[in-house]
Amino acid sequence: MILFGGDNPRAILIYGLVVLAVLAFSYFVIIKPITDTTNDTVNKALQQSNQAINQGLQQSQQAINQANRQQNQANRQQSAAQRQAQRQLAQAQKAVAQAQKSAQGANP
Q1: CA-CA distance, 80 to 71, in Å (whole number)?
Q2: What is the C-alpha separation between 67 and 106, in angstroms, rounded?
């Protein structure tokens, strides 16, 4: 106990307060600024990653919308082509039927 002032309670109290002061100083000068800087850096990184995620989601949604529009346009074109093919088929069937009638009428 010689290091702490022997049996003198006042010396022990002073040494204890000095130790607490050194610890408090170390915390506020060394540890707290480091943790504050680290927290700020982590928060900025999280904010940037959220922005990147949101931007990626918007771009993917735009791509999906564009693909849907193109698919709808392709479906409309396909439907139009099918209707035209059906009309042409009906016309060809009429022409065949007329040709058969005229062939039957010419060969009694």
Answers
A1: 14
A2: 57
Q: What is the pLDDT of residues 70-87, one digit of tens each?
A: 999 999 999 999 999 999
- Is the model's pLDDT at 2 over the cut of 60? no
Query: Do 5 and 15 contact (CB within 8 A), yes or no?
Result: yes
The pair of structure tokens assigned to 63 is 């791509």
Give the global pTM.
0.55
Q: Which domain holds residue 25?
A: 1-39
For the chain, what is the radius of gyration of the CA atoms?
45
Q: Indicate whether 67 belongs to any domain.
A: yes
- Of 81, 23, 73, give the one whose Cα is nearest residue 15: 23
Whether residue 65 sits in one domain with residue 33: no
The Cα 76–Cα 84 span in angstroms is 12
- How remote is the C-alpha of 84 from its chain's centroid? 43
Does 66 lie in the same domain as 35? no
